[in-house]
Design brief:
With 444 residues, the chain is α/β, with parallel strands linked by helices. Helix content is 24%, strand content 31%. The longest helix has 16 residues. 34% of the residues are buried. About 7% of the residues have low confidence.
Length: 444
C-alpha cells in the first residue's frame, strides 16, 4: 500500500447466515456433514444476507470522507470491518496508522468497569501507553464533562454520557485515522457543536476522518468526498456535493416503484456542476444553468427559468453586498398539478451545499398563486451575503403533507458571486443599526 494511502478497501464483502428458526442452525451444523458422508448434495438451512458486497475504494492521508446511505445499506458493517471488529467474508482492508473509532453506542466498553478504567482499557487496545493516557486523563475529563461520574461503572451511564466519554477518548489518543459512526446523534446540541469544532481542529492537523451520518448538511460541511452505499453495494464515490445531491434525489424520488439502479442512472445522466462560477452560465433561451448539481422531480420541465437578478430584474452573475436582489422563477404548471397546496421555493447555498437562505410562497405570509399555467414568482431581498460564490436552487413543491413532495427540484439553477469592499466575518451580514447609550456608571 502506498505511504500516501491511509485506508485501502479491496473487494470487501460480508455475508451473514440468516436462519428462520433456531433448530435450523443445529441442522446446518450436522446435516451437511452427514449428507457428504453418503455422497449426497449437502442441504442449506439458511438464507444468505450480504451486508456488504464487493466494495472497493482507497482514502488518502488527511482526507475527510463521508459515508452516506439509508438504514441497512451496510455503512456500519463496512466501518466495523475497517476497524477490525468484524471479519470480512471476502476482500481485504489495510489501514496505515493508529485507528480510533466511535462505532455503535458502548462499543469497546466493559460495562462493569468504571469510566476511568474504560479510558485506560480503550487506550491500551489502541496501543497508547498507559502512562501517557494517565497524564491526559484531566483533558479527557474536561472535554467529556464527566469528572463527577468517572469512577462510577459505565453501566450507570446514559447514552449521552457514553457518547461523551467515547468521543473524548478517541480524540486524545492522537489517532492517524478517526472513524465516527453516528455516535454524535445521541448527544445534546451543545456537546455536538463542541465535537464538530474539535473534529475540524483534528482535520487541520492532517488526520484522516471517515464520517457516517444521516445528516447530509453535516457531511457536506465536514467532508470533501462522499461514498454512497445501498443494499451493501457501492453506488457512487466522488466529490461530496454532487454525490450527496444525487443521494437526496434518490431519497426524495417519487414513489413510483422505480428501483435504485433506475434512479441512479437518471441522476448520472445529469452533468455534474463545475467548480466555481462558470462562463457558460445559462442554456440559451432557457434561463437555467446547463450543468446543475442535481435536477429531479415527478414533473421535470415545470421550471422554465430561475435567476438571481438586480433591482431592474436583469440576470447578473456578480452582485454587490447590500444591493437589492430579485430571485425570479418562471414556471409552467401542468394541468394535473392541483393549486391548493402548490408552493414555489428558492434557496441560496454555498458551494459546499449549506442552505443559507430559504423561502417559499407557502411561508407564513402565504402568496396566492394565479390560475394561469405560466407565471413568474419574484422574491425580493437586500443582499446579506458576504464576498463569495453561491448557487441558486429553484423548486416546485406540494406542501399538502409534512413530507414535501417535489414536482421539480433544480439545484444549481444559477451560479453567482457576491462582492463587497467591506471586510465581513461570518456567513452573511444583514444591515444592522448601531447605537450607543450614555448612562452614569453605577456605584456600589
Amino acid at each position: 500500500m502506498s505511504s500516501d494511502i491511509a485506508i485501502s478497501v479491496d473487494g470487501l464483502s460480508k455475508r451473514y447466515e440468516v436462519f428462520s428458526q433456531p433448530k435450523d442452525r443445529l441442522k446446518q451444523m450436522v446435516m451437511p456433514k452427514l449428507k457428504k458422508l453418503i455422497g449426497l448434495e449437502p442441504p442449506q438451512y439458511f438464507r444468505e444476507f450480504w451486508a456488504v458486497r464487493d466494495v472497493s475504494f482507497s482514502i488518502n492521508k488527511g482526507e475527510t470522507v463521508g459515508i452516506i446511505g439509508r438504514n441497512g445499506s451496510g455503512k456500519s458493517t463496512l466501518l466495523q470491518m475497517v476497524c477490525g471488529t468484524v471479519t470480512p467474508t471476502a476482500g481485504l482492508v489495510t489501514t496505515n496508522g493508529r485507528v480510533a473509532a466511535l462505532l455503535e453506542l458502548g462499543a469497546g466498553f466493559n460495562v462493569e468497569f468504571t469510566g476511568r478504567e474504560n479510558v485506560l482499557l480503550n487506550a491500551a487496545i489502541l496501543g497508547f501507553p498507559q502512562e501517557e493516557m494517565e497524564q491526559r486523563m484531566g483533558d479527557v475529563l474536561a472535554f467529556s464533562e464527566l469528572a463527577e461520574f468517572i469512577d462510577q461503572p459505565v453501566k450507570t451511564y446514559s447514552s449521552g454520557m457514553y457518547a461523551r466519554l467515547a468521543f473524548s477518548i478517541a480524540i486524545h489518543v492522537d489517532p492517524d485515522i478517526l472513524i465516527i459512526d453516528e455516535a454524535l446523534a445521541v448527544g445534546d446540541s451543545r456537546f455536538v457543536a463542541k465535537c464538530m469544532r474539535r473534529i475540524k481542529e483534528i482535520q487541520q492537523r492532517g488526520t484522516t476522518i471517515l464520517f457516517v451520518s444521516h445528516d447530509v448538511s453535516s457531511v457536506r460541511t465536514l467532508c470533501d468526498r462522499a461514498i454512497w452505499l445501498s443494499n451493501g453495494n457501492l453506488v457512487e464515490d466522488g466529490d461530496v456535493f454532487p454525490v450527496t445531491g444525487r443521494y437526496m434525489e434518490f431519497m426524495f424520488r417519487d414513489e413510483d416503484g422505480s428501483d435504485l439502479s433506475g434512479a441512479n442512472q437518471a441522476a448520472k445522466s445529469e452533468l455534474n456542476a463545475g467548480d466555481g462560477i462558470r462562463d457558460d452560465v445559462a442554456v440559451a433561451g432557457a434561463g437555467l444553468d446547463s450543468r446543475p448539481v442535481t435536477h429531479w422531480g415527478s414533473h421535470k420541465g415545470t421550471i422554465l427559468s430561475a435567476s438571481v437578478c438586480n433591482s431592474e430584474s436583469i440576470r447578473k452573475d456578480i452582485h454587490e453586498w447590500g444591493c437589492l436582489l430579485n430571485i425570479v422563477i418562471g414556471v409552467k404548471i401542468p394541468d394535473d398539478i392541483p393549486r391548493q397546496h402548490l408552493g414555489i421555493a428558492f434557496a441560496i447555498k454555498d458551494l459546499q451545499g449549506t442552505d443559507l437562505i430559504v423561502s417559499t410562497t407557502h411561508d407564513l405570509d402565504r402568496l396566492s398563486l394565479p390560475e394561469e399555467a405560466e407565471f413568474e414568482v419574484c422574491f425580493r431581498l437586500t443582499n446579506p451575503l458576504v464576498s463569495g460564490k453561491y448557487l441558486l436552487v429553484a423548486a416546485v413543491e406540494n406542501r399538502q403533507h409534512q413530507d414535501i413532495h417535489y414536482y421539480e427540484y433544480f439545484e444549481g439553477a444559477h451560479y453567482f458571486s457576491t462582492l463587497s469592499e467591506a471586510r465581513f466575518f461570518g456567513i452573511f451580514q444583514p444591515p444592522i443599526d448601531k447605537s450607543v447609550k450614555v448612562a452614569p456608571c453605577r456605584t456600589t
